[in-house]
Amino acid sequence: MECDSHRIIRTSPERHGNTSAKEHDMSTISIEELITKAIEARERSYSPYSHFCVGAALEATDGTVYTGCNIENMGFAPTICAERTACAKAVSEGHHEFTRIVVVGGAKGPLTSFCSPCGMCREFLCEFCERDFEIILAKSPTEYKSYTLDELYPLTEKPVFDTDDPFGGAFGGK
User: What residues contact residue 167 under an 8 Å CB cut-off, 6+ apart?
Assistant: First the structure.
């Protein structure tokens, strides 16, 4: 599945495109290494029902990398995507700010197409990431596409509440 025709498939390790300078100030890992980590995470996918294996590698602003794979459940709703697995691991370790994520996925076997985060994962990422957060869809360490969160999930903003307790004490607030 090809994405928008205005996107260039990168086949070299050079950086081009729409990434902001601040995104990679703290990066200690190359894009090829980050993609490799996502591919390795995909190998750990638990997908006995769909046989669709996804891996992700999420980079925190301090350069720490968290990986995740999709974990299916026969009830479907409890299934968790690779992107949310990586993000949950990071948040549970105290990281709340991120620069980029790599997503790889497809049917078991060699990667042959790009895999984009689902809507739920895009919304989840919005909770912790800026609009210029980089989302890299890859088939290999040298073949990938780069988007911003804003490009993949436009017109979305975090809610702004007028009070410290937007739920009127319903959940133990003030």
Answer: 173
From 111, 46, 39, 104, select the one nearest 79 (Cα to Cα). 46
**Catalytically annotated residue among 23, 59, 72, 83:** 83
* Phi-psi category of residue 143: left, alpha or beta, with phi > 0 → left and psi -120 to 50 → alpha: beta
Q: Contact, 102 vs 37, CB < 8 A?
A: yes
* 143 belongs to the catalytic site: no
Residue at token pair 């990667």: 111
The DSSP line for 44-69 is T-B-TTT-EEEEEEEEETTS-EEEEE
- pLDDT digits (tens), the chain, 174 positions: 333 433 434 443 333 333 333 444 556 899 999 999 999 999 999 999 999 999 999 999 999 999 999 999 998 888 999 999 999 999 999 999 999 999 999 999 999 999 999 999 999 999 999 999 999 999 999 999 999 999 999 877 666 656 666 666 666 555
CA atoms within 13 A on the CB side of 23: 24
